[in-house]
Fold Pilin.
Amino acid sequence: MKNKVFYIGTAAVVLTAIIIGFFTVGGPNTARQDMFDMRRYENLRQIATALHCTNWRILQPVLPDKLDLESIRAYCGGVQMQADVLVDNETNIPYAYTRISETEYSVCASFYDAHRTMRLSYQGDPRLDGSFNPDTGCFTGRVR
């Protein structure tokens, strides 16, 4: 009888811990959304880094009119970027790129929770991370 009470009590504690864990961390769907959002954030960071061309041979780059591999490579000679960085990995839709002027741009994505993604992201160039607006889901920047 004592063993039965012990097993029931242990099972109740474990079940309670699992339920509390789901409420604290979120379930598998939240983890999946976080994964997609982190990928979006990292892709936008890579695009912003490419647009802030560090190629010292290009003195005054003019931002490309459109966002594709050819235009980025022509803009910043020799930049290494994969085509999948330019599209959302969940929806397969290209990220929204706006050339505001010859030296200003914005590149945006639709996030499940951009504020959470920004908190979870700990890598990157602080100069670029400071240009991310979680309210709009956009990196904005000025080159030169």
In short: The first strand starts at residue 96 and ends at 99. The chain has a mean pLDDT of 82.
